[in-house]
Amino acid sequence: MTDPIETTKLYIGGQWVAPHSSEVLDVFSPATGAKVGSVPDADATDVDAAVKAARESFDSGVWRNTPVAERTAVIRRAVELINERGEQLAQLLSAEMGATPGDVATIQQFAGTACLSAYADAADAYEWEETRTGIFGETRVLKEAVGVVGAIIAWNVPLFLFCNKFGPALAAGCSIVLKPAPETPLNANVLAEIFTEAGVPEGVISIVPGGVETGRALVEHPDVDKITFTGSTRAGQQIASRCGEQLKRYSLELGGKSAAIVLEDADIEASAPMLLFSGLLNAGQACVAQTRVLVPRSRHDEIVDAMVAVASTFTPGLPDDPETRVGPIINDKQYEKVTGYIAKGKEEGATAVLEVEAPKVGTGNFVGPTIFTGVTNDMTIAREEIFGPVIGVIAYDTVDEAIAIANDSDYGLAGSVWTQDVEAGYEVAKQIRTGTMGINWYSIDPASPFGGYKKSGIGRENGKEGLESYLENKAVVMPMGYTSA
């Protein structure tokens, strides 16, 4: 990117309109400090306009009454357009959030379009109407769109998160108002235009950039039927409380403190690259990051040496440098948080066996990969989500102890098991109280449910389970004795 993208209007109901708000959100590169662009900071009046457009479009039936096959065709067309503009989106996202173009291509564009395609497949295969026979005879069970959706997403993988909200909402027949994170609003406008170009009717989609107040206006709006949120556990708790007061549907994808359990027989030489990637991806700014690595005490030093060797190759730097493997931390506040956790780890007795020196480039906040040993599960760095490239190694003596350590967490979002015996790894995975697990790697499968236990969230995304969270169930009891022809 060269010139900043100065956007003076809001994308409301598929049209660019003048905002009510006079406030502006400036967007700066976390790597260089250069201005990337600006957007209006939507206020409550702007949110109301977006929700009104969504409500009118939903009530009119212009999208919810569109046949499912036509809705999914639009979603598939959006996938094509996103892929056609992949380079443009990669450059924009790298500028907004500091990720390398390679990371954008894999963990955002590929993952996001895969989710869209999986939602389209799920909708095409879904049983939207069924007939059941009960004590009174025949009942027809219908699946209907929940209504107007308010979506709020985080800054760490915005393209992926955008797709994971738009995909199920649109497949279900909902209208949607999305609030992107204030750090990364520019790509949301581009993506919204793509969906309009793909064929989403006027009124169905809106983007309202902003911070806490914008999000609050969306959550509390009486014409929003469902809130879907991806972000911190603390914010999710506040949203759940406000939705509960209104009896409003909601789903939450929140924080994590995932454990990677390395079993005694693991081939650590083969596993180390993927194990470290699972903890350091996106500069550790991932809710599913495997940041607690549980290793058998008998192989502790060997495994740590292999981890250090691989992590040392995760070079921090500017996103446009082909040697960069770890981009910058998103902003000053998050940088202080991450470095504070590193200091806390040392203070509580853990040993930093690796601290890759951060580069002095640009004006960004860079933190190199950091690995702690001597970590116990009661330490702060083992309990709290750091959201940075920091991994803690915890030794265990028995598999049962490893399972207990993994489960001793307020979170339950992700995890993994590393072993040469896949079935033994599966038996361990079954005992971990977490929403997703991987064996010898970690990934989110777009056709399978994703979400958390405990404080990692409520509800599921992806697959038919993700689609169903945007649907209501209606039962129509037919006359007694009536039988369908």
Automatic annotation (TrEMBL):
GO molecular function list: aldehyde dehydrogenase (NAD+) activity
Catalytic activity line of the entry: an aldehyde + NAD(+) + H2O = a carboxylate + NADH + 2 H(+)
PROSITE patterns: ALDEHYDE_DEHYDR_CYS, ALDEHYDE_DEHYDR_GLU
Keywords: Oxidoreductase
Catalytic residues (positions): 253
Enzyme category, top tier: oxidoreductase
Record carries keyword Oxidoreductase: yes
Domain (Aldehyde dehydrogenase) ranges: 16-476
Protein EC: 1.2.1.3
Pfam family, any one: Aldedh
Protein family membership: Belongs to the aldehyde dehydrogenase family.
This protein's name: aldehyde dehydrogenase (NAD(+))
